[in-house]
Design goal:
globular; binds alpha-D-glucopyranose; 3-stranded antiparallel sheet; alpha+beta; single chain; 4-stranded antiparallel sheet
Length: 471
C-alpha cells in the first residue's frame, strides 16, 4: 500500500472508531449498548433503539478492546427484560424471550428501558434470533474475560435455561430444526422464509454449543441432556438435507415423489420442478456448494443466504469439506455474491410473481433491494471470520479493500441496492452502527486471528461433550 493509501485507511479507521463511540447508549450513567443508526433523519422509527442482533458486532469489538463493562452492562440489563413468568395472554411476550431491541426513555427525571418484543415492530414480527444472539454474546464475554463465574450467577443460569427451554420444547413438528414465522431474524420482514430458515438454524446451533459450555458446571441435567441429544441431530439434518452441490442436485433432479413410509428417499417430497435446476447447474462450480435457505414439506428454498452459510462455517455446523465448498462458491461467483459491496444478504432476488406473493408487494423489498438481495456491509465480518476459519484470508482482504473507502465516502449506509450493489440503498440509513462495527471487526479479525475464538467453534465432539468446557 502506498503512503497516501495508508493515510486514507488510517483516516477511515479513526472515523469509524469515533462513530462507534458516538453510538454508545447510556443508561443511568452507564454504557449499555449501541444505537442502530445515528442518521439525522426526521423519523428515526426504531433506529434509535439498541437491537440485540445489531449489537453483536459492537460487543465483539468492545471485548477485543478490553472494554468489558459495556458488554457486561448490556447482558445484565437485557436479562432483566426477559419475561420470567408465563402469562396465558397472547399479547404478553413468552417466558424466556429476549426483546428485539430496547430504548432508554425518561419520565419525571427517571430513566427506564422500554423493550420491543415485536409488539411495536413493523408487521409485528417476532424476534426469535435475539435470545440466541444473547447467549452467543454472553459466551463471547466469558471467553474474553475468562470470568465463567459471571455466567454461573443464578440469574444468568436461569436466563440461559429459560431460553433453552423455549427452544428445545416439543411443538407441533418432529424436526431437530426450529420452526419459526417469517421475519424472525435479520430479515425482519416477510420474504418467504417462514418454516426452517437457515439463519435461525445456524444461530440455534451456535447458541446450543455456547449454552452447553455455560451450563455445564451448573448441573441442570435435563437441559444439558436435551442439548446433547439435539446437537448431533441438528448438525446431521443441516449437513444432509440442506446441502446443495452438483452431486446432490443430480439426486434431487431425479427424485422420486409421493413416497410414503420409512423407506422414502425424498423425505420432504420435494418436487424437482420446484427447483431452478437449469440455473443452478450453470451457477454451481464443480468444487462448490452451499446450504439451502430453508427445507420443509415440499419446500427446498435454493436461495443462497449469506449469514446462515457463513455462520455455519464459523461454528462447524457445516463440515470442513462443506465449508471449503461454500468458500469455493463465493470465490467462483464473486460478482453475484460480493459484487461491488460485500455482501449480498441472499441471492438471487425474488422477482415478478414470486416477489409479489412472498413479500406481499413490499416496496422496500423490491428485487435487488434491502432484504431481497441487497448488499449488506455488516456481513463483511462474517465473511472475514469464515475466510479465516477456512484459511482463505485473501478473500476477506479483497472484500475489505472493496468496502472501506466506499463506506466512508457514502457515510456508512445500512445497505446497497442493485444486482452488484452499485447503488446506496433507497431507504438505507446512514451512519448505521453495524456497518461501521462490521468493517472494524473484520479488520480486527485480520489483525489478530486469535480474535476468531470469540465467535467460532471446533467440530462438535459428542463423546467429550461433558468436558466441553474449554472456556
Ligand atoms: C432492519 C434490519 C434488522 C436490523 C434493524 C436495525 O430492520 O432488517 O435486521 O436489526 O434494521 O438495524
Amino acid at each position: 500500500m502506498s503512503r497516501k493509501e495508508l493515510v486514507i485507511v488510517d483516516k477511515i479507521e479513526k472515523q469509524a472508531w469515533q462513530l462507534l463511540e458516538d453510538a454508545i447508549v447510556y443508561y443511568q450513567g452507564r454504557p449499555i449498548g449501541t444505537v442502530a443508526a445515528k442518521d439525522s433523519l426526521e423519523f428515526p422509527l426504531n433506529y434509535d433503539h439498541c437491537f440485540i442482533r445489531d449489537f453483536a458486532a459492537s460487543a465483539l469489538l468492545f471485548l477485543i478492546q478490553g472494554r468489558y463493562d459495556i458488554v457486561r452492562n448490556f447482558l445484565e440489563e437485557t436479562l432483566k427484560l426477559q419475561p420470567k413468568k408465563q402469562l396465558l395472554d397472547a399479547y404478553t411476550p413468552t417466558k424466556g424471550l429476549i426483546p428485539a431491541s430496547f430504548k432508554v426513555v425518561s419520565n419525571n427525571n427517571k430513566e427506564y428501558l422500554e423493550a420491543d418484543f415485536g409488539e411495536h415492530a413493523i408487521a409485528r414480527v417476532t424476534p426469535v434470533d435475539s435470545c440466541l444472539w444473547w447467549i452467543i454474546i454472553l459466551h463471547a464475554y466469558v471467553k474474553a474475560t475468562k470470568d465463567l463465574k459471571f455466567a454461573l450467577q443464578p440469574e444468568f443460569q436461569e436466563g440461559i435455561a429459560l431460553i433453552m427451554e423455549l427452544c428445545l420444547a416439543t411443538r407441533f413438528d418432529m424436526s431437530p430444526t426450529l420452526l419459526v414465522p417469517d421475519g424472525a431474524c435479520m430479515i425482519h420482514r416477510r420474504l418467504g422464509i417462514y418454516g426452517y430458515p437457515l439463519e435461525i438454524q445456524a444461530l440455534f446451533y451456535t447458541a446450543l454449543r455456547a449454552a452447553r459450555q455455560l451450563l455445564i458446571c451448573a448441573g441442570d441435567e435435563d437441559i444439558v441432556i436435551g442439548i446433547d441429544n439435539r446437537l448431533p441431530l441438528l448438525q446431521n439434518h443441516i449437513r444432509y438435507h440442506y446441502w446443495i452441490d452438483i452431486k446432490r442436485l443430480n439426486i434431487i433432479y431425479r427424485f422420486k415423489v409421493e413416497e410414503y413410509g420409512q423407506s422414502a428417499t425424498n423425505l420432504f417430497n420435494i418436487y424437482p420442478d420446484s427447483i431452478p435446476y437449469a440455473d443452478l447447474a450453470t451457477w454451481l462450480p464443480k468444487n462448490g456448494g452451499y446450504l439451502a435457505g430453508n427445507v420443509g414439506p415440499s419446500q427446498l428454498d435454493t436461495r443462497f443466504f449469506s449469514l446462515g452459510n457463513l455462520m455455519s462455517i464459523m461454528t462447524s455446523l457445516a463440515s470442513e469439506q462443506q465449508s471449503q465448498a461454500i468458500m469455493n462458491l463465493i470465490e467462483a461467483q464473486w460478482e453475484d455474491l460480493i459484487g461491488t459491496m460485500p455482501m449480498k444478504i441472499c441471492f438471487p432476488a425474488l422477482e415478478k410473481a414470486e416477489y409479489k406473493i412472498f413479500t406481499g408487494c413490499d416496496p422496500k423489498n423490491i428485487p435487488w433491494s434491502y432484504h431481497n438481495a441487497g448488499n449488506w456491509p455488516v456481513l463483511l465480518w462474517f465473511l472475514t471470520a469464515a475466510s479465516q476459519k477456512t484459511g482463505r484470508i485473501n478473500m476477506a482482504k479483497n472484500a475489505i479493500e472493496l468496502a472501506q473507502t466506499r463506506l466512508f465516502e457514502d457515510e456508512w449506509p445500512e445497505y446497497y441496492d442493485g444486482a452488484r450493489g452499485m447503488l446506496i440503498g433507497r431507504a438505507a440509513r446512514r451512519y448505521q452502527t453495524w456497518t461501521i462495527a462490521g468493517l472494524l471487526l473484520a479488520k480486527e479479525l485480520i489483525r489478530n486471528p486469535s480474535n476468531l475464538e470469540l465467535c467460532s467453534f471446533a467440530e462438535f465432539d459428542g463423546e467429550n461433550a461433558s468436558q466441553a468446557c474449554d472456556l
